[in-house]
Design brief:
This protein is mostly beta strands and 639 residues long. It is 8% helix and 55% strand. The chain has a 22-stranded antiparallel β-barrel. A five-stranded mixed β-sheet has the order 1-6-7-4-5, with no helix packed on it. The chain is globular, with a radius of gyration of 24 Å.
C-alpha cells in the first residue's frame, strides 16, 4: 500500500527533526514511576469522585498506542470497537459512548454531529497526563459527562529540566509499523513540547469464516499520523501564554463483515485543533482564559453501494475562569464557557448550528484538624431549542482511619441531543429533550503501611438514573426514528488493587481492576416490551483487567490480562456475543549502546492464547500477534 512509503518518509522526517534538536543530549537512566492521580484545576474542585491516571508502566508497554489501547491497559472500562484500526469508543459504568466526555486541557472535543470521539484517532504520547474521571461531571464540564470523562492535559514547565523525550520505532505482525516520539524543552522563559506519531498496517490477520474455513481479512489496512506542538512563554508577574496546535489524519479501509464477501468502503478523517491559553498565578488567586478552534472533516465512500458522504464540523470554544482562596479553609472558583458549533452533512436539509453559554462555580471547604474536604459545584447552561436543567454536584472526601480514606458524591447531570439525533433525514427529531440523570457513589481506599511496599485497594459503589434516554427505533416502512424512549438504571461496583514491592534487586508490581455493571431499561414502550428490565446492548456486566510483573537489572517481564463477560446485541437479550479473555506478555531490556544513548528493546506478545473473539457482531478480531519496539530515551538536565 501507499501508506508504507508515506510512513517511511514521514518517520524519517520526524526523526531528523527531533534528532537535530536533541543532538547534544546526554541521557540518563529512565525510572518507571507508580501511577498517581493528577487533576486539572476544574476537576480538582469535584471531591468524592474516583480518578484513575495513566501510569508510566502502561505508557512504556504500549509505545505509539492510541487512547483506546492505553485505556485497556490501566482500567477496566469497556472499549468497544469495530475491528482493528476502526472506530473505538468508551463506555463507563453501564452508560453509552455518548455519556463519556473527552476534554483537552478542559476544552470539550466531542463533535456536535455524533457527540463522541473515535479514541483510535487520539495518540497517548501526545499528553503528559491522561486520566479517567469516573462518575457524573456535567456540573464541571457540561453535556456528555454522565458516566465519566477522559482528561487530556499538557502544562508548561518553567524550570531547568532541560531536554527530555522519547522516540520509538515498532514493527510487527500483519505489516504493522509504528513510530512515535515526544520531546520537551524547558529553558529559561521558554517551554516547547513536540509530539508525533505514525502508524500503519495491512491488517490482514487470519480468521475463521462462518463455515470455519481459514481466511485472511481483506481490505482492512489503515494509515494514521499526527503531531502536536505546544509553545509557552513565561510573562512577568507569574503569568504565561501557551499556543497549541494538534493535527490528526487517518485513511482507513473498512473491511467486510462475515456476512459480506467484499468491501470497497474507505473512510478518511482529518482534524485540526488549536488552542491559545493565558494564565495568571497569584498567592491567593488564579485566572485563566482559553480559546480553541476545532475543525473535523470526514469522508466516507463505498463504490459498491454508491455512497459518498462528506461531514464538516467546526467548533469555537472560549472559557474564562478564576480561582480565589477566600480564607484559610475555603476557596471559590467559577467562570463562563461559550461555544459555537456548526455541522454540514449530506443527510441534513441544511447546515446545523447552535451557540451555548454556561456559567459555573465551585465552593471547596476544608476543616481545621481534619483531612476532610467538602465541595459544591453548580452549572447552568443557556441553549435555544430545549430546556437544560440546573446542574449541581455535592462531594466529600477525607480520612476515616489511619489506613482508610472515604469519599462520596451526589450530582445531577445531562446530555444534550446531538445534531444527528435532531436533524438527520429521515428519522431525526428536533423536539428531543436532553437526557437527565442523578448520580450517586461512595467508596473507600485502604492504604497499608508495611516497609518496602506501596499498596492501595479502592472500592466504589455507584448508581445512576438516566431519564429521557435517547434511542433510535424501527418504525413503519422499515424507517428508523429517534425518541426519548427509555429510563435506564445503571448500578454496580468497582474494585481496584495496586501493589508495588521493592526487594533487594527486584521491583515487583501487580495491578487489578474489576467492574460489575448492571444497566437495565426501566421503562416499557408498550405492554409486551421485551426490553423491560433487560441489560443494555453492548454493556458487559463483568469486566476485569490485570497486570503483574517484575523488573531486575534492566530486564522487565509482565503479563497482562483482559476479560469481558457476554454482551447482548438485541434489546430483548435474545442474541449475544460470547465472553472473551485476552492474555499478553511484555519482555523488555534497557541497553546502553553508549553512555549517551540508553535504548529500550521490547517484545510484545499479544493474545498469546490465540483467542477467537468479537466485540461487535460478525467482525472478528486478531489472534496471536507480535510487536517489536526499539525506543531511544533522552534526558538532558540544564546546567
Amino acid at each position: 500500500m501507499q501508506w508504507m512509503k508515506n510512513s517511511v518518509f514521514i518517520a524519517a522526517f520526524y526523526f531528523m527533526a527531533l534528532s537535530a534538536e536533541s543532538q547534544h543530549a546526554l541521557p540518563d537512566t529512565v525510572l518507571q514511576l507508580d501511577g498517581v492521580t493528577i487533576f486539572s484545576e476544574r476537576s480538582g474542585s469535584a471531591k468524592g469522585l474516583l480518578t484513575v491516571s495513566l501510569d508510566s508502566i502502561t505508557r512504556d508497554q504500549h509505545p505509539g498506542a492510541d487512547l483506546a489501547e492505553l485505556i485497556q491497559g490501566f482500567s477496566a472500562a469497556y472499549v468497544k470497537n469495530y475491528g482493528e484500526g476502526t472506530l473505538s469508543t468508551l463506555s463507563v459504568r453501564g452508560t453509552s459512548a455518548n455519556h463519556t466526555g473527552l476534554y483537552w486541557n478542559g476544552i470539550k472535543l466531542s463533535p456536535p454531529n455524533i457527540g463522541y470521539v473515535d479514541l483510535s484517532l487520539i495518540q497517548g504520547n501526545f499528553f503528559q497526563d491522561v486520566s479517567i474521571m469516573f462518575g457524573g461531571a456535567s456540573p464541571m464540564f457540561g453535556s456528555n459527562a454522565i458516566g465519566g470523562s477522559i482528561q487530556l492535559n499538557n502544562k508548561p514547565v518553567f524550570d531547568p529540566t532541560g531536554l527530555k523525550g522519547r522516540i520509538s520505532f515498532s514493527g510487527g505482525s500483519f505489516s504493522r509499523l509504528n513510530s512515535a516520539g515526544n520531546l520537551s524543552l524547558s529553558k529559561g522563559k521558554l517551554y516547547s513540547n513536540t509530539a508525533f506519531s505514525i502508524a500503519g498496517s495491512e491488517n490482514d490477520f487470519p480468521y475463521s469464516d462462518l463455515y470455519k474455513k481459514d481466511a485472511r481479512m481483506p481490505h482492512a489496512g489503515y494509515f494514521k499520523t499526527g503531531f502536536l506542538q505546544d509553545i509557552a512563554f513565561q510573562l512577568p508577574r507569574n503569568q504565561y501564554i501557551m499556543a497549541s496546535a494538534w493535527f490528526q489524519y487517518a485513511d482507513r479501509e473498512i473491511p467486510p463483515t462475515l456476512l459480506e464477501t467484499v468491501s470497497s468502503a474507505i473512510q478518511l478523517d482529518r482534524s485540526w485543533r488549536t488552542m491559545l491559553t493565558w494564565k495568571d498565578f497569584n498567592a491567593k488567586s488564579t485566572w485563566e482564559a482559553k480559546a480553541a478552534w476545532i475543525e473535523e472533516f470526514t469522508r466516507y465512500s463505498d463504490s459498491l453501494s454508491g455512497i459518498y458522504s462528506v461531514i464538516r464540523c467546526q467548533t469555537f470554544n472560549a472559557v474564562f475562569e478564576g480561582y480565589y482562596h477566600l480564607f484559610r479553609n475555603a476557596s471559590l472558583s467559577g467562570g463562563l464557557d461559550f461555544s459555537s458549533e456548526y455541522a454540514d452533512l449530506d443527510y441534513y436539509s441544511s447546515p446545523a448550528g447552535q451557540q451555548k453559554l454556561a456559567a459555573f462555580a465551585a465552593w471547596v471547604q476544608s476543616f481545621s484538624g481534619s483531612s476532610w474536604k467538602l465541595s459544591l459545584n453548580v452549572r447552568q447552561e443557556l441553549q435555544s431549542g430545549y430546556p437544560i436543567p440546573f446542574l449541581y454536584a455535592i462531594g466529600a472526601e477525607g480520612r476515616l482511619l489511619k489506613i482508610l480514606t472515604g469519599r462520596a458524591s451526589f450530582s445531577r447531570n445531562f446530555r444534550a441531543p446531538t445534531f444527528n439525533e435532531r436533524y438527520w433525514r429521515p428519522g431525526g427529531n428536533p423536539a428531543l429533550l436532553p437526557e437527565s440523570s442523578y448520580n450517586a457513589e461512595a467508596g473507600f481506599r485502604i492504604i497499608p503501611l508495611p516497609e518496602n511496599v506501596t499498596t492501595f485497594l479502592d472500592f466504589t459503589g455507584f448508581s445512576s438514573w438516566v431519564d429521557n434516554w435517547i434511542l433510535w427505533l424501527p418504525g413503519e416502512g422499515g424507517l428508523w426514528s429517534v425518541e426519548n424512549a427509555q429510563r435506564v438504571w445503571a448500578r454496580g461496583v468497582e474494585v481496584r488493587l495496586n501493589v508495588t514491592r521493592q526487594f533487594r534487586y527486584i521491583k515487583a508490581n501487580a495491578m487489578g481492576a474489576y467492574t460489575f455493571s448492571a444497566s437495565t431499561n426501566r421503562k416499557k414502550l408498550f405492554e409486551l416490551d421485551q426490553s423491560f428490565n433487560k441489560q443494555l446492548i453492548y454493556t458487559p456486566v463483568h469486566r476485569f483487567a490485570f497486570r503483574a510483573g517484575a523488573e531486575w537489572q534492566g530486564f522487565s517481564l509482565y503479563l497482562k490480562g483482559n476479560f469481558s463477560s457476554r454482551v447482548y446485541t438485541t434489546r430483548d437479550n435474545s442474541a449475544s456475543l460470547s465472553p472473551w479473555f485476552l492474555l499478553d506478555a511484555i519482555l523488555a531490556k534497557s541497553v546502553f549502546v553508549t553512555k549517551r544513548f540508553p535504548l529500550m528493546i521490547q517484545l510484545n506478545l499479544e493474545n498469546i492464547l490465540d483467542t477467537e473473539y468479537s466485540i461487535t457482531p460478525y467482525r472478528p478480531m486478531p489472534g496471536f500477534n507480535v510487536l517489536i519496539t526499539i525506543a531511544l530515551n533522552i534526558n538532558e538536565e540544564n546546567k
